[in-house]
Amino acid sequence: MFAAYAARIDREQPLNGLELGERPAPGARPGWTTVNVKAASLNHHDLWSLRGVGLGEEALPMILGCDAAGTDEDGNEVVLHSVIGQSGHGVGPDEPRSILTERYQGTFAEQVTVPAWNVLPKPKELSFAEAACLPTAWLTAYRMLFTNAGVRPGDSVLVQGAGGGVATAAIVLGAAAGLRVFATSRSEDKRKRALELGAEAALPTGERLPERVDAVIETVGAATWSHSVKSLRPGGTLVISGATSGFNPERTELNRIFFLELKVVGSTMGSKDELASLLNFCAAKGVRPVIDTTLPLDRAREGFAKLAEGEMFGKVVLTV
Question: How confident is the prediction for the chain on average, in pLDDT?
Answer without folding.
Answer: 95
